[in-house]
Amino acid sequence: MSTGENVPVSPPDLTGGVLRTHRNLPNVEKSPVPKGYAKLIAKGYDTVEETLNLRLNGEFLDRLEDAKARAKDSNGGDGVAPVAIGSGDFTEIMHVRSHGGQGGVRYFLDNDDFLIRVRPQSTWGVSVRYKSAGLWEHGVKPLSDRIFTALHAEGKPGCDKWATVKRVDFACDFHAPAFSPEMVWSIMDALVSRMKFHPVGSSAGVETITMGSMANLQIQVYDKGREIREVSGKDWMPELWAREGYDVPSDGQDRDVWRVEIRFSKNFLRDRGINYFDQAEENMADLVAEALYSNRLTRPTGDSNRRRWPLHPLWTLAADAAAGDAMLPMGRMFTMRREELRRQLLAQAAGTMRAAGILEKENFEQGDAVHLGQQIERKLVGLSGDRKAVGDIKERYRFMDEPR
């Protein structure tokens, strides 16, 4: 359904009536934070997910089905195909995956900013996850305006309050060289919580502490630099930190950057009377305070009762950060991932051709390289005629330069 207007359609303002969420917080003092102990270099939402009551148009569902079929017909059955959502200036190009998922999910759609799951037979059958990169680049409101406008053109809301919040992750990044030596196994004795703990590390120290689970509330403190290098590949984060005064090491190995991340599930939020993202945002300082005070890293003292130990300085800084002013988004960023992948593929191709030459002649010299080059040139010319394969590969890399 078209809006008929050349303006974004925002979610309705649904903030009225929610109760503040300081709920019998433990009477725990804050530890003094030594001067220079840690510097806040980023804070904000790392994931937001909403569930929509949206009756999608049959024509749009047909387009999704067609895109899914085209995705199955590329990359050995595990490809993607583009689909346009919205109209005019408010159109989102997204990839439809070749498969569905659990819980009745028939269509997965994503681009660099959003992941959408569609369950056509369900009343609340559309969920939208705002991805980490998009949130740090643009913020929740601009992303929400974009996707709500696009989806509103493809369906009709089933009720007035048609978007409920499903998950909110709030994160604080600190450059904290003084904290790094504290992340040894004995730090587990300083945790006070009714939730279960799960540490990850090595003999050299602890890299990640996870408290709780995504079924309700989860809190993590972890080595963000290591996580970027080994897991997420979010190599754009140092640019965000540098804006707040972080000196990026010349070798690119980001050290002593620790993240405190609090992940609020739908169950946790509903139990506190929070149904909509605007309500969560309005009460975020209280939500973070409740999470960190009730499930806390402490600074041990001589008191025999651990529950009276004061809040650890890093927990203090995270709670204070949530209560402060919002940090401005970075604006659109780009990565060098395309060039890096190109170099990797060329290196792999060269290594493969050398192996082929050795299989043929049990040797590899300069003349062999010229001979193999001539063979591969003929094959590449032949491959250039397969326009469908070229198009499939080009589509697969559409969002390669965007942060993820």
Describe the structure in your own words.
There is one protein chain. The longest helix has 25 residues, at 337-361. The protein is globular, with a radius of gyration of 25 Å. Strands 3-4-5-6-7-1-9-14-13-12-11 form an eleven-stranded antiparallel beta sheet, sandwiched between helices. A two-stranded antiparallel sheet has the order 2-8. The two termini are 31 Å apart. The protein contains twelve helices and 15 strands. The protein has helices at residues 58-72, 132-138, 140-152, 224-232, 237-242, 266-270, 277-282, 284-294, 313-323, 337-361, 366-383, 387-396, and strands at residues 39-52, 54-56, 80-87, 90-97, 107-110, 114-118, 126-130, 155-157, 163-175, 191-192, 197-202, 205-213, 217-223, 257-265, 296-297. Mean pLDDT is 86; it is low at 1-21. Helices cover 34% and strands 24% of the residues. With 404 residues, it is of the alpha+beta class. Helix 8 (284-294) packs antiparallel against helix 9 (313-323).
SSE arrangement, N to C: EEHEEEEEHHEEEEEEHHEHHHEHHHH
Shape verdict = globular
What is the number of E strands? 15
Structural class: alpha+beta
How much of the polypeptide forms β-strand, as a percent range?
15-25%
Averaged pLDDT: 86
Terminal CA distance? 31 Å
Helix content: 25-40%
Radius of gyration: 25 Å
Flag low-confidence runs. 1-21
Helix count equals 12
Largest sheet: 11 strands, antiparallel
Strands ordered across the widest β-sheet: 3-4-5-6-7-1-9-14-13-12-11
